[in-house]
Fold:
Amino acid sequence: FYEWVGNTARLVITPLTDRCYITLTMALKLYLGGAPAGPAGTGKTETTKDLARALAIPCYVFNCSDQMNFETIADIFRGLAQTG
Structure:
């Protein structure tokens, strides 16, 4: 199950993005997930999307807010399960 998105630009590799890549790659190897946490605007989403692009695996991003409840999350996962 791979997804090729073409030859796209990559993020600049810094010690922080390198550490994030290693941690998320280890989690994937152990069949776990990852959710980088930190202040807004530090590149967590872009780093995760760039790693997924480099590994040719799909990455689904959604932003949680105080208006989101368990039914909304269930709808998201239901849609992901139905599309494969």
